[in-house]
């Protein structure tokens, strides 16, 4: 019975997480959003550049951030700001993971695109557990920053 209570708490806590998607390719952003909503979670918003992302940041808990956005390669600096200024758990999703291979202060890690929906689900569960101070297994596809 205690296990069921913990699982229910974990599920309820997961459902409260709001995910910001920072991606300049609209179809990729929509696909990520559909995956997040399919998990029963809320999308805090879609942003294609730094300005939009910072406007949406106060309503987000988790952010998936591309490195190259509509306003240039602003993703790494944006990810640092989202993590440090807003306490958001940031994971970079990029076709160029080597651009953030040395890590970005405050960000959790990086995943190479394309990212399958099952990996997005694993990432969200991992980040939600991490935010709650719980133990979680790092998804195999993610490189964690030190």
Strand content: 15-25%
Mean pLDDT: 91
Cα-to-Cα separation, first versus last residue: 37 Å
How many domains comprise the coordinates?
1
CATH class type: Alpha Beta
- Stated plainly, the CATH topology is called Rossmann fold
- Overall CATH architecture: 3-Layer(aba) Sandwich
| Global geometry | globular
Structural class: alpha/beta
Poorly predicted residue ranges: none
- Superfamily (CATH H level) name: Response regulator
For the largest sheet, list the strands in their spatial order: 2-1-3-4-5-6
Q: Count of helices?
A: 5
Question: If you compute it from the alpha carbons, what radius of gyration comes out, rounded to the nearest whole angstrom?
Answer: 14 Å
GO biological process, one term: phosphorelay signal transduction system
Domain Response regulatory: 18-128
Pfam family, one: Response_reg
Modified residues (4-aspartylphosphate): 66
Reconstruct the topology from this structure.
Blueprint lengths: L1 H14 L2 E5 L3 H13 L3 E6 L2 H7 L5 E4 L9 H12 L2 E6 L14 E4 L4 H15 L10 E3 L2
Parallel strand pairs: 1-2, 1-3, 3-4, 4-5
Antiparallel strand pairs: 5-6
Helix pairs in contact: 2-5
Protein name: Response regulator
Organism: Rhizobium sophoriradicis
Keywords: Phosphoprotein
Question: Could you describe the 3D structure shown?
Answer:
The structure is a single chain. The protein is of the alpha/beta class and 146 residues long. 42% of the residues lie in helices and 19% in strands. A six-stranded mixed β-sheet has the order 2-1-3-4-5-6, with helices on both faces. α2 (26-38) links the parallel β1 and β2. α2 (26-38) crosses α5. The radius of gyration is 14 Å and the shape is globular. The termini are far apart. The mean pLDDT is 91.
